Amino acid sequence: METVKIAGLNVPVSKFNPGSLGSDLIETDSTVRNLSNILYPLLEGKPVLLVGDAGVGKNALIYYINYKRKHPTARFSFNEDTLPEDLIGSYRILMDGRGFTWSDGPLTSAIRSGHSFVADEMNLCPPHIIKRFSTVYEAAYLELIEGDSSRIYCGEGFNFIGTQNPAEGFEGRKPLPFDITRFFSVVFIDPHTPDEILFILKKLYPALSESLLQSCIRISLETETRVVTGKLGKGDLEKYHFNIRNLKKLCNRLLGLKADTSELQFREFWNFYVEPFRKKEDRDFQIELLLSESGLKVVPELPEPSFQVHKGFLYCNDKEIPIRDEDKAKRLLSEVPLPLKLREFSERVFTAIQFQENVLIEYSEEQDPQILLPLFAEISGLPLETVSLCKGIHTSDIIGALKPIDGSKVDWVDGPLTRGIREGGNILITNLEAAGAELVEKLNMLTDDARSLTLPPEAGRNEPIQLAEDSRIFALKLFRKSKSTATISRAFRNRFTSVLFPDLEDESTLTEIVSFYLPGNSLILKMVNFHIKVRDLAKKRTIGSANLVPYLFGLSNLLFWKDHILRYADADGGKTGLKETAVRGGRIAYTNQIADPKERMELEKILDFQMSGIEVESDFFKILEDRKKNSNNGHRH
Q: Does Protein biosynthesis count among this protein's keywords (predicted)?
């Protein structure tokens, strides 16, 4: 029998093609120790449960073992919606509605085929669901009571491996109970030491100097220590985590962007170790760390981002994104206002896109990232599928289910997530915080190196569907304001690159945005001043003091206002008509929502006074008509 040596053990080799996942694992002392701890029970046919923090490489170890021994891995991401039939299988109605056919689930398929089965994030699933297939890890067989009631035995090659993150920092999940874990060989996966991390990075990125790698590691370890001890990020109410996954992304960028100066290196350090934090004091704290490591005295000033489309690429300073349709890319760039803050934000997003990173855009209620969504989600020319999450949504709603399709016919219908993967385009997930950790953890395989999704048995497919190489995943998430609000786990967050949507509420930025849509310096200045005035009154509770929840006014209010003016103002009405339209639009966008009649009247007086002195330039209405035509043709939104 052919064998291969893994961690000093002779392991039998299978005759399958396991793919390339796991091929880049670097063996260190702790890796060898972890591999040895896994292999002994695995070769004895015992079920194994891997326990360890996010990013320590639990799945990577299994992929590596199976890559070396040429053995397939079937992986299923558990969540709170997981049902027995998702794993075991179910009957599927034939297309003509005249019969049924049985479809194996991933667990049943792995048992029949003699493959390894990885129950990823097993503790997210309720224990009473896990006990349905308890005979698999207790007595090595599965009874298909959902099917023909036959009993299938776990034969040669089959292994049952579960993974579990600890309870701390993972949004309330609980460890598996002892009456389940007592049947497993439980292995705690030790994290890498700093020296081992350096060894790994030197192997993976030999072109980067050792001193630079050491700086990266020190920054990462110190940032994680600050988070764990509560010195950093506490006010954000989020669960942050910094590990070797962040370091690999950082090193990919340093290498790919040829960041060979302290200034360029500082920029990428910032993107990973400053950008995720919302509070100014946290950012300043991190900037001190980056300056000390980079040897710089002040935050470097870098060239302002600029965008060019040329010969099949979008160029943003030193970044380049392949695009399929140059005309569409140029049109998208021309459709949105791009003041400096939005250009800097876009540059960060485009950098993540270039390096195949999942992008998490976080924003406050007052801001409106929708203004830029088409720019980064569609500019590549790939189709876009949007997955809108909400509280109470089920896994089947986004993945798919059996549904009537034509009269009495019933067949599998893809949900938006599955449809987006099959189309080979980009996927935009909105309201990420609304669904809760139970559902989004189902996306684990899709957002890590596997980049795939396992469908339920009724889909009639055993193999996971694969995300295309060019496809990117974008997610939108509101800032968390209270501990009672749901958020994502730090394990899931760690799979994304976080980019904060900027605060656009300063006068110059707002003026530049409105000027993109409307002519007339006088009108624009008065609109912006009124917006800032109302926003400040609401924040100080000068208006809305009797309300339980304060009024919020953000960029969307200003955009609603300009929409009204753009639609109704015209040359026939002249200056008087423009003022009437502006006042009416201001009431629609701002004052009509004020509950207290006195407060509403006071704001309307301020609005009327602000709009009374509008100066109309000689070419105002001509430019306005041109802007209207562009808007009607879909060039501006």
A: no
pLDDT at 637 over 60: no
Phi, psi (degrees; rounded to nearest 5) at 331: -65, -45
Find, among 612, 548, 558, 623, the residue nearest to 583 by Cα.
612
Q: Is residue 635 over pLDDT 50?
A: no
Question: Average pLDDT in the 343-368 region?
Answer: 95
Work out the end-to-end distance of the chain between its first and last CA atoms, rounded to an integer number of angstroms: 67
- CB contact at 8 A, 107 and 114: no
* CA distances (Å), origin 479, targets 168, 237, 500: 21, 9, 9
431 CB-near residues (< 8 Å, 6+ apart)? 388, 389, 390, 476, 477, 478
Average pLDDT, the chain: 91
CB distance 240 to 490 below 8 Å = yes
Q: Please determine, for residue 276, whether its predicted confidence score (pLDDT) is greater than 90.
A: yes
Question: What does the pLDDT average to over 337-341?
Answer: 96
- B/e letters for 17-35, b = 16+ CB within 10 Å, e = fewer, are ebeebbeebeebebbeebb
Q: CA of 70: how far to CAs of 11, 17, 62, 116, 595, in Å?
A: 10, 6, 12, 11, 69
Q: Residue 163's closest CA among 44, 274, 295, 55?
A: 55
pLDDT in tens, 522-543: 999 999 999 999 999 999 999 9
Under 8 Å between Cβ of 462 and 115: no
Q: Which of 76, 65, 15 is nearest to 43 (CA)?
A: 65
Rounded CA gap, 101 and 261, in Å? 62
Q: What is the mean pLDDT of residues 84-93?
A: 86
β-sheet bridge partners, residue 188: 51
The answer to whether 122 touches 163, Cβ cutoff 8 Å, is yes
Please indicate whether residue 444 or residue 231 has the higher confidence score (pLDDT): 231
Interacting residues of 345 by C-beta distance below 8 A, sequence separation 6+: 372, 499, 501, 502
The residues, ordered by sequence, that sit 6+ positions from 518 with a Cβ below 8 Å of its Cβ are: 524, 527, 562, 565, 566, 624, 627
Q: What contacts 552, CB < 8 A, 6 or more positions away? A: 365, 366, 538
Average pLDDT over residues 446-450: 90
Q: Check residue 436 and give its pLDDT.
A: 67
Residue 634 has pLDDT above 50, yes or no: no
Q: How far apart are CA 211 and CA 228, in angstroms?
A: 26
Q: Please tell me whether residue 65 adopts helix, strand or coil conformation.
A: helix
DSSP output for 427-456: EEEE-TTTS-HHHHGGGHHHHSTT-EEPPP
